[in-house]
Amino acid sequence: MTAVYQGGSVHLIKGQDAIQKGAAFEPNQFSGLILFDGCGITAGDAYQPITSGKIYATIQNNFGFNGYRLRVGFEPQIWNASTTTWDEWDWGIDDTVNYDWRHGKPLVRSIEVKENTNKKDCYSIEFVATNMGPLEQDDTPADDQPCEVAVNMVSRPRQVNAYRTEDPNSRLVFPTYGVTGCSGDFGWEGSDYFGCTLADIDIAGQPIDFNGQPARVAIEQTYITIDLIVRGPYQSWFGTHSPQEETFTDPTYVNILDAQETWVNRRNIDDGLFGYAQGELLCNDISIQPLHYEYKRVSFSFIRDEWFHMEQIPWMPGGTKIETIDYCGQDDDEMVYLNAQYVTWRQSYLMGFSVCGGPNGTDGDYFRYPAFRRAWAQITGTTGDRSFVCEPCS
Q1: By CB count within 10 A, which of 1, 71, 87, 192 is most buried?
Q2: Do residues 176 and 195 make contact, with C-beta atoms less than 8 angstroms apart?
Q3: Same domain for 205 and 107?
Q4: Could you tell me which residues come within 8 angstroms of residue 269 by beta carbon, excluding any fewer than 6 positions away?
Q5: Same domain? 338 vs 196
Q6: In terms of domains, do 298 and 390 share one?
Q7: What's the pTM value of the predicted model, to 2 decimals?
Q8: Beta bridge partners of 159
Q9: In this structure, are 274 and 325 located in the same domain?
């Protein structure tokens, strides 16, 4: 590449850029080389005497070093004399190709200034910058952009006390409910939850208890973890020669911080979310772990439960003794096989969360496009359901 700055007896030559694209959830690495030839510099020059320390200190200040600004944790920049502004280092990716990095520009991670052992006053300035994620093309639809998302699914049993089970001829009955919003009571409220008659509360199904004692059985749970990349706060240059810096924060990161307080221990109010019914998914936890400098690995963990996270409770008049009925229905000289006469559900998770509960009312508030659809495909084995409509919080 040609020289971009030359002044007096100082020759500053920009070396060749290098880019190494990282694998999924691994950083992209960029390296740059600036050659500084101060041969013939005189006592009147600003950089006399030249030292590695002076170059290092100068190149990271707000005025830069002969048209370059490099500071660890910031974007590398080049001075544009025609516009009198600092331009971003483009790493050879011309703006005309309409590409940009999904999770932001690379930031400088290390700077090394070395004097050439064979030539006095000749220095090399080597620096490494990194970021994460793929390149996106501006004119490509959002759902077709590349992204990095990983899904892990594990099915395991949950041991429960069961008074009723179901078979093809005797299905369990789950209560219906109305969603009142993310911050309100979620399902089975008041009489809708308990019912007003014994017939209302009974869950049907096939009795499997013996003399009112439940059977210990296993029901199915599926643990789903969705891993994403998100960028935390980082600093950037502020203005042309201002001594200030500005901190940038990805809005997705802020929304996920909010979700840690408003999703955990709540169930989905979005019917059909990842192919599951309303109330079937419990948000178990949301973790944010360091990944690479300001980049974080966010893990959303959900649990799908066969009983919608409920327990079976037998009816006990006065709260002291289970009311039973003779299954055989015979006289006293025949076998007496007692079952709980009425069984109801007990739900402990009455609050809900919505993937449209963010400030913009879309799933993109938490899952940058197209991560939501890609996660959906990995969970269901099918293309993301484009007809899915989530429920905004009321």
Answers
A1: 71
A2: no
A3: no
A4: 179, 181, 182, 186, 278, 279, 352, 353, 354, 391
A5: yes
A6: yes
A7: 0.86
A8: 218
A9: yes
